[in-house]
Amino acid sequence: MRGEVGGGTSDEPRSIGGALPALVAALLCITGLEVFNPEGGGLVAGVTGLLFIAAPLLWFFVGAWLGDDGLLAGLQAASIAIASLAAGYGLWQTIAGFPSWDSQWIDVAGYTALQVGVIRAFSTFSSSAEYAIFLAAGVMVIFARAMRGRLLTLPALPLLVWALILESSRTVVVQGLAGVLVMGALLAGSVRRAIAITIVGLAVIAVLDQVLAPHLLAIAGSTSDPLISHEAGGLGDPLNPQQSTVQIHLTQIVAGFALAFSHPLGLGTAGTNLAGLKAGSAAVGAEVDIPNQFISLGILGGVLYLVIVVAALAAACGLALRRRDVVSLATVGILIVCFGQWLNGGYYALAPLVWLLIGSIGRSLWLTSRSQRRPAGPTLQPIERGA
Q1: Do 84 and 160 form a contact (C-beta atoms < 8 A)?
Q2: Residue ranges per structural domain of the chain
Q3: What's the predicted TM-score (pTM) here?
Q4: What is the DSSP string of 314-336?
Q5: Neighbours of 295 (CB within 10 A)
Q6: What is d(CA 336, CA 175) in angstroms, rounded to the nearest whole number?
Q7: Sorting pLDDT into bands at 50, 70 and 90, what band is 18?
Q8: b/e 66-96 (16+ beta carbons within 10 angstroms → b)
């Protein structure tokens, strides 16, 4: 019976739990070698690039060593409080304007990418993109708690959603909907039911988007708020290049893979992040971590990272399917809303959290496999009278 839980075999936790640490360690080795890549802009740039790739990966081992349920529950609860405070400050930036210290940060960082008629809020984070994803991570934890009957944090949901909408990031909204859907599907208790619910849910979301598209486009055309117009227009007509940047992002991803295959040994650890720019070399990027790791770490490193992403998502979903508790469900939701940015430079608060969670998944599966390998104790036989 134990082998049927979650639709897998009893060896499944053992194989995945053992594979993740080995895969991450191998990726760290490749990352270290890429410091010396002659196309990487020099040794200083290569060493600096470790801060954007190797440093986040090290948090995997912190999670594997310390990431028990108590720590994760505390971190996830704290993320709601931090996201709520960040949302309040971000709304102040949006409504009242940026204080002098934030204006100086915008000038120093040169955030032209934040501009959509106005500059998007970034709260206490280094960028609006990280701010939006952290808000969505808080939303995932609130939904995970609500799904298990813990409603105490539900009043924070409107604040986070309002701040997320005014931040005007369409991708995070879509990934947030997908995260809530997958968390709900994992409560089904079996792989087949979870997959069926996910497919049906995605179809329903697509139909609702088409039904609501005229209303969203009407809002985009009538509102005087450029952030709401940007949000509603992109969600209402995602394939229209006048309303959405989906095609631009897809083009960048394809170009990133093409560049990677033209440089099979990679461009070094500084190839796609701020380290390359600061060193004076031409840093390039596809805005998504998977093609970026192909560019930085070469074909071998990129394939290895892709395997880690797939294994981590599969392990997280399998764990949540078996346990169906708040911690495992929220972990899945956070990984989904952060998908594409797990190992991108510039996500200084999110990257440690993501890799700590992935490390905790490996820890949980290793503990499960160890308990399954443990031999049963000797059975005492009753002594017959007269023997």
Answers
A1: yes
A2: 16-368
A3: 0.90
A4: HHHHHHHHHH--HHHHHHHHHHH
A5: 27
A6: 6
A7: low
A8: ebeeeebbebbbebbebbbebbebbbebbee
